[in-house]
Amino acid sequence: MSNTRKPISLVERLVREHPQGTVPARRVLDTPEKIRAHTQRMKAATEDRLREDRRARQESAARARTRRVD
């Protein structure tokens, strides 16, 4: 497993402790390499979603600035 002295990341902790849902079935994440790969995929998906949300907020703010107030 991983080094016990190094604290695990939030994403890795979520992967290991999540009881159901999006986490793969038992024994799928049975090696450190598989855990690392799954953690990287989750981080990438999270970063993509944050980028999309940020872009949507910026577009919404730009529309709000150009809106006329009567």
Description:
With 70 residues, the chain is an all-alpha fold. It has one domain. Helices cover 61% and strands 0% of the residues. It has helices spanning 10-17, 32-66. Helix 1 crosses helix 2 (32-66). It is rod-shaped, with a radius of gyration of 19 Å.
Helix/strand/pairing class, anyone? mainly alpha
Which spans have pLDDT < 50 for at least 5 consecutive residues? none
Task: Give the overall shape, derived from the CA principal axes.
Answer: rod-shaped
**Terminal-residue CA separation:** 63 Å
| Rounded average pLDDT | 77
Number of domains: 1
DSSP E strands, number: 0
Tell me the fraction of residues in β-strands, as a range: under 5%
Give the proportion of residues in helices: 55-70%
**Gyration radius, to the nearest Å?**
19 Å
Tally of DSSP helical segments: 2
Could you provide a short overview of the structure?
This protein is mainly alpha-helical and 70 residues long. The protein is built from two helices and no strands. The chain has one domain.
Ordered list of secondary-structure elements with their pairings:
Layout: H1 10-17, H2 32-66
Question: Could you name the key traits of this structure?
Answer:
single chain
